[in-house]
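4.2 Preliminary Data

To establish feasibility before requesting continued support, the project team ran the inverse folding procedure on a target of 267 residues. The structure was first converted into the token representation described in Section 3, and no sequence information of any kind was made available to the design step. The complete token record follows.
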């Protein structure tokens, strides 16, 4: 019998892979990686991919796109999550979906500021949501920009000692622009997930507390209904040094943040 399905909704550089390690350490739980990201879950190789599932679904029923209906689309989304649950049965599953991938679950009409279909679907079906976000939007933005510069996005891809002295000069106006955009996005997603069965948890919480048997562990395990099957040993580790140490033009960045109302991010 397939188990329960939960969604992990988060933005980039929010600690979702660390949270995923924790989920995989729970008895009878399996984490399903970024199903909408063809770089992470390649459609040609992985049946977990939403894009692969949609391809196969269309071959089986071309009318899905030729004669689209809202009930038909709802059935497609339900079938996809049932497909993931069956793949991981009898375990419960947590599906990693980023802010930027939520649009993949729309039908053909989605005004930009209207609640996405996915969250209406979750509310109607009682699907639990773990909403993970990073409160310090400047740190999240800097982390993302440096990852793009290094072409390294995960801790297991780098030996920290090899870049201990490396510093980066960043375009400060672009940092603050992206940080303010992330702040707006996070507020929207906090609003949009309202009404669903959810918990909210921050990067700051999991970075400091996850796996240490405290409040954060208790909150997550109680919501998911799981328990640790063994000692939590994450493969993900924080490797990016503090912003003040890794940004060459830190003083310039701090001034720009203060000007744009983000001074609290760089105290």
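Position-by-position output of the design step:
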């Amino acid at each position: 019998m397939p188990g329960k399905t939960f969604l992990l909704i988060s933005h980039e550089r929010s600690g979702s892979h660390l949270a995923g390690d924790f989920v995989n350490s729970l008895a009878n739980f399996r984490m399903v990686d970024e199903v909408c990201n063809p770089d992470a879950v390649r459609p040609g190789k992985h049946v977990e991919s939403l894009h692969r599932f949609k391809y196969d679904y269309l071959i089986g029923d071309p009318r899905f796109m030729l004669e689209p209906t809202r009930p038909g689309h709802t059935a497609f989304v339900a079938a996809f999550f049932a497909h993931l649950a069956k793949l991981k049965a009898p375990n419960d599953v947590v599906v990693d979906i980023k802010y930027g991938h939520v649009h993949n679950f729309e039908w053909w009409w989605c005004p930009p500021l209207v609640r996405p279909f996915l969250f209406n679907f979750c509310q109607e079906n009682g699907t639990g949501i773990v909403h993970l976000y990073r409160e310090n939007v400047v740190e999240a933005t800097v982390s993302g920009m440096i990852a793009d510069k290094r072409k390294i996005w995960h801790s297991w891809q780098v030996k920290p000692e090899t870049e201990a002295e490396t510093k980066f000069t960043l375009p400060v106006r672009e940092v603050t622009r992206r940080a303010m955009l992330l702040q707006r996005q996070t507020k929207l997603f906090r609003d949009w997930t309202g009404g669903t069965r959810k918990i909210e948890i921050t990067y700051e919480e999991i970075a400091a507390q996850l796996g240490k048997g405290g409040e954060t562990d208790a909150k997550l395990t109680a919501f998911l209904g799981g328990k640790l099957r063994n000692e939590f040993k994450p493969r993900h580790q924080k490797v990016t040094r503090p912003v003040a140490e890794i940004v060459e033009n830190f003083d310039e960045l701090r001034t720009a943040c203060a000007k744009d109302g983000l001074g609290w991010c760089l105290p």
